[in-house]
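Why show two proteins at once? Because comparison is the fastest way to build intuition. When a single record is shown, students tend to memorize it. When two are placed side by side, the eye starts asking what differs. So, the first record is below.
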Amino acid sequence: MDNPYFNKKTLTSCIIISILLIGISYSSHYLVQPISAKSSSYDKGSSTSKDSSSSSSKDSSSSSSKDTSASNSSSNTSSIALNALELKNETYRWQNTSEAINPTLHLIANTDYLIKIKNPTDTKHELIIASNGTELAKSNEIKPGKNGKLNFANSTGTFEYHCEYHPDTMKGIIEISSQ
């Protein structure tokens, strides 16, 4: 018996629309998750400058964060936290404090960035920022259980970041705009 207000075709359409909406909501959280430059609890556990993974490189221009919660000191520097993350079968990714995987970093020009890196994994990592195959900045090697940092400043544009040792799985995009 057909109910004029509720038939199989209507039910199927409602289920499909619901699944699509849930899928869009879920994927947008993980695919378009920006990282905000802000202070974190990272400072409490970070190593001293004696650590072999201290900052190493800096460009002559500078960058800033869109996030109003950014930690800006008198030298106009913002902090970003990235952690190495180990998945199954020794597959590694970068993860931010929002737990986004290989997040796109949305930055604004004219502020220096200090990218703080934690390595809780059992292998070494090294963060590299590049543009069209040209290395712009890199951290030193970050040994298992250690922390590192990288100073980065640049003009507007799109850049990539990756791990020296895991470039196919630990990679992401940096978008720097003038506003």
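Second record. Ask yourself what differs from the first in the token line.
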Amino acid sequence: MREHGMMRSGPFLAFALLVSAGCGTAGTVPSATKIGLVEFQKVFSDTTLGKKTLESLNSFIKNREALVELEEKELKRLQEDFAKQASVLSETAKREREEQFRRRAQEFQQKAGELSREVQEKQKEVQEGFREKADRAVAKVAQQLGLLVVLEKGRGAPVPYSDVSLDITAKVIDEMNKTTP
């Protein structure tokens, strides 16, 4: 939607749609429009589900880090053994051990990369799952309060300023905590 040569997006588009739907006139804030704001990061950090999710994710990450550390220790052990025995090994044996170490180092790099990808995929999966549940709680609270639009606020969100009376984050947290044992 273009108006006065400017493209509208994000919360401005939502407001423009409300205005064009007859909820107000251009240049004024529609008095009947009910808008809410929610800070999802706070919902994540302050809900029982968010805390359990974070605990589970941290456990998963620590498990993967432990696997990487075990492999790393094994590589260091191989390197130390080779350094101790290098003076008594023949040239052929040295080359074979160096080649073996090189292969193990490559395997380690591949495994570390795979584990890192697993962690990233798990983080994405967890965030998406939590966000779906949080979105349902937001919708329920919005319906209870008769809100027409709920915008996201917080770091990196498109709302640089808002009156605190529009914030429904605490209500969303309460709603989510009701449904999480």
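One difference worth noting in the second protein: Residues 34-179 form one domain.
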